[in-house]
Specification:
The chain is α/β, with parallel strands linked by helices. The chain is 53% helix and 12% strand. The longest helix has 32 residues.
């Protein structure tokens, strides 16, 4: 089974590319969604409460992800330290879920899955991948796309500063896609070309639902 890891800067369109690979038959694995599921675990909530206090919890008793993000995604040393503590709690559990899900997919006969993980290299999840696709998008275009999400300009820089440098991501990639234009048909052609180059068949008829991706 091919495991296609997606790499690129913040707002480079990884989710869109993952969706296009899914159209061809790859099973999508979204590490961010798995991370959200991890935050629901009782042991994780206890560890986070002990580490960050009750302020990061909503009245429902669940983690307020926006509040937590505000504490850990900053350019200052304190924010970076808090992020390291969060990752020490969450990353091993995400890794465990990813490994289990990949094994389940192999046994089910999936030909490919696509892993969308912003911190793939930092967390060491590239070890699961047989391909790394780097998505090339100039910074000014990514900034414009991030602003459409309602992000302030410094938010992109703050999040990206906590990831592996773009130059290293690109260096470690095996394949490349350009997503600098709004032409989805061109992006779809690039994805399809890689799929064919890798010799992968379309597997749209197979159902690999009930994954640990949610």
């Amino acid at each position: 089974m091919e495991v296609i890891g997606l790499a690129g800067g913040v707002a480079s369109g990884k989710s869109t590319v993952a969706g296009l690979f899914a159209e061809l038959g790859a099973v999508p694995l979204d590490a961010d969604r798995i991370g959200h599921a991890v935050l629901l675990e009782a042991e994780v909530k206890t560890a986070l409460r002990n580490e960050f206090g009750p302020a990061i919890f909503a009245p429902s008793g669940e983690v307020d992800r926006k509040q937590l993000a505000g504490m850990v995604f900053g350019m200052d040393a304190a924010s970076r330290q808090r992020l390291q503590k969060l990752e020490a709690i969450s990353h091993p559990r995400i890794s465990h879920r990813l490994a289990n899900e990949l094994e389940r997919l192999r046994r089910a006969g999936a030909v490919a899955c696509v892993l969308d993980a912003a911190v793939m290299f930092k967390a060491g999840w590239d070890r699961f991948c047989t391909r790394i696709v780097f998505i090339r998008v100039p910074r000014e275009i990514r900034l414009a796309r991030a602003s459409q999400r309602g992000w302030a300009p410094n938010e992109l820089d703050a999040r990206e500063s906590n990831q592996t440098p773009l130059e290293e991501k690109e260096r470690r990639a095996t394949d490349f896609i350009d997503n600098s234009t709004p032409d989805l048909s061109d992006l779809r052609r690039q994805v399809a070309r890689l799929w064919l180059d890798w010799g992968l068949p379309q597997e749209k008829s197979r159902n690999f639902s009930n994954s640990g991706n949610s």
